[in-house]
Amino acid sequence: MTVADPIRTRRPRLSDRDRFDVAALTASWLVADGRNSMILTTGGRLVWSNHAADKYLNAGIDFHATHEVVRVADPNQCAAFEHFLTTAASGATSWHYRRTSGDGGLLLRGWRLEARSESVVGIVFHSTGSDFTPRWADFASAFGLTPGEHRMAAGLLEGRSADELAVEFQLGVGTVRTHIKHMYGKLGVSSRGEFFRALSPFRLS
Length: 205
What we know:
Low-confidence stretches: none
Number of strands: 7
Number of helices: 9
Largest sheet: 5 strands, antiparallel
Shape: globular
Strand content: 15-25%
Strand order of the largest sheet: 2-1-7-6-5
Oligomer: single chain
Radius of gyration: 22 Å
Helix content: 40-55%
Order of helices and strands: HHEEHEEHEEEHHHHH
């Protein structure tokens, strides 16, 4: 018995795959996905990008895209970006582009993809600056949190203290701490470190 045998047993209708254009469905999925995604040749030529990445490319802040060739905006980091593209492996390779403004930058993850003619790299990227907004799965329903407990959890994940949350939501510090205590109990944690570890699998980006 091979590794694939149990899969065939559990999913006997694999022939259904022939009825669908999997490549088109995959492309539609990636276009709709909220993450910034693009495919470049190792020379920097743009092969494909989704709507989210298009906004970044068209903004011209972190990237310069001319004649379909993508480069980072800071000329002093172009060589490092080219090295990132040419050394991308089949496993995820990462590189951090630092903005000259000092407000973080971009974290890029790249995968070498199979192509018929030339090497290409699939890239997913997000900001590491003040404009970064993390996306989370619905951990509130997973742990049965009340709306108040969920607000406290979201605030803690953003790095705010109990005092800051009390000011933000116009609550007493004691009320905030009670919400946090109940929320910790539902997560089965007793410290800030355990709290972050419990919710880290729910981080989408």
